[in-house]
Write a structure and sequence with these properties.
The protein is α+β, with helices and mostly antiparallel strands. Helices cover about 15% and strands about 55% of the residues. It is built from 2 helices and 9 strands; from the N terminus they run H-E-E-E-E-H-E-E-E-E-E. Strands 1, 2, 3, 4, 5, 6, 7, 8 and 9 form a 9-stranded antiparallel beta sheet that branches.
Length: about 200
């Protein structure tokens, strides 16, 4: 009788642990980026104006659990960089070693290490961003919304290019640039669609 009771307790313990494991696995949902619908738009500013354009997301995924992003990784195709007016001279300069060095560094990478809970659809995301082989910590606010075609995330990321050895035209590193000064920070507007 005692041995049967011990066996039953062991079985119950095993089932309980297995159940907890399954709950944890099922609670963490992996989402994959829909690269055809995701939109990345950039804005660079200088003393005498600004330039805008687009760039494509190559691939991406994130893990979602307890109303938070637990982890994720997104690769950006730097060769896809376009300027709104299709100024080919400018596009070529942005892809050169003066700026993003696309031939040597064809992708940029955002690695997400976590986020705060998305209370009322908004949270703070933390991770690292790698551009031109240089990696720096990054943090930004994001909003999320569930729609018929999947889950959307929206954010505006402000990036200091000089932290990634992109110093061309920077008033922080060069004197007497005058109206040719290009501001250190550029903005990346992200409309990201992910699906299970």
């Amino acid at each position: 009788m005692n041995s049967n009771l011990i066996k039953m307790k062991r079985v119950l313990l095993f089932l309980t642990l297995a159940g907890l494991f399954l709950v944890n696995v099922s609670a963490q949902n992996k989402f994959t980026a829909d690269t055809s619908k995701t939109q990345l738009s950039w804005l660079g500013e200088k003393v005498l104006g600004q330039h805008t354009g687009t760039i494509h997301l190559q691939s991406g995924w994130l893990n979602w659990q307890d109303n938070k992003i637990m982890s994720g990784e997104f690769n950006i195709d730097m060769a896809s960089l376009k300027e709104t007016d299709r100024n080919q001279k400018l596009e070529g300069h942005l892809k050169s070693d003066d700026f993003f060095g696309v031939d040597k560094f064809p992708t940029a990478k955002l690695v997400i290490t976590g986020s705060t809970p998305f209370e009322k659809g908004t949270g703070v995301v933390s991770g690292t961003l790698t551009i031109k082989g240089v990696t720096n910590p990054i943090e930004f606010k994001a909003a999320t919304q569930k729609m018929d075609d999947g889950v959307w995330f929206f954010t505006n990321i402000v990036i200091d290019r000089t932290k990634y050895n992109i110093r061309y035209g920077s008033g922080s590193f060069f004197d007497n640039l005058g109206d040719k000064t290009i501001y250190d920070e550029f903005k990346l507007k992200v409309n990201l669609l992910v699906k299970q």
